[in-house]
Amino acid sequence: MIACPVCNATNQTGALFCEMCGHRLPTVAAAVTPPRAVAGGVQCPTCKHIATPGEAFCDECGTPLNVGVAAAPAVPVAPAPIAPSVQPAPQPSYPAPQPIANAAPSCPSCRAAVIPGEAFCDNCGASLLAGAPAAPAARPVAPAPVQPSYAPPVQAAPVVPAAPVYMPPPAPVVPKPPVAAPVAPAAVGIQSLAGFVLVTAAGTRINLPAKAEIVVGREDAVSNNYPDVDLNPHNGLADGVGRRHARIFVRAGVVQLEDLDSTNGTTVNKQRLQARQVVNLNVGDEIRLGRCVLQWQR
């Protein structure tokens, strides 16, 4: 219990203001027990936990350990020290709560609950004898703002677009015909195979007809095949010459040879041709149709 220093009224422990006169009550500082140095560390004064030297607070209860360490008693060597029994601190006794018939009154200033009959609030010290505070005056109602009046919008006359001015299309530009460059006369080349010969390995000369294209092969009446150059008299069948083996023709003034997909193949200057491959022929070239060797001469 705490006695008021003004009116000597008795107040509950922990009250900040006197219940009778409203005077602020003095606060009683709790005595701080410094920790005690023991063997192996520092003993907490609250829970008696042995803390490591140098720690600022107890690891178990959080009590400050840097208040001042009491001198450590002499540590006996034989038995380990027995920690003294801790008596629980006496708890303050409070009167039994009285039933409240109506709702508990509250302080008009801080709204804290107060005991009926108290003259001042325990929490803020405000007087409780003046009665309930007067209801606050009603706030004046601001007048509604006056809406400004606006003149109705004037409908603008519709804008009539001007009639489009007709512009005649420009006259088409007729391009001038390009002037053809003079064409130089083409060089006159070989026009036909007249004058060319195929020389066999035996030295026989086979004159070619005056045509721009001939077929070299073997004559066969059964299949109604009659090539321009028949190699049957020159051992063509034994040498593997086909009925339509190769084609010799003139194109753009140049004599050319084409393999007609023969079975035994065509070789020019020891270069085997693919099926339907075309090569140029020059005087002195060696032609092999299968195993039949011919030479292109003029």
From TrEMBL:
What CDD domains does UniProt report for this protein, alphabetically?
A: FHA
Can you give the residue ranges of the FHA domain?
Answer: 214-273
Q: What is this protein called?
A: FHA domain containing protein
- UniProt superkingdom: Bacteria
- SMART domains listed in its UniProt record: FHA (SM00240)
Matching entries from InterPro entries are given as: Cell_Proc_Reg/RNA_Proc, DZR, FHA_dom, SMAD_FHA_dom_sf
PROSITE patterns assigned: FHA_DOMAIN
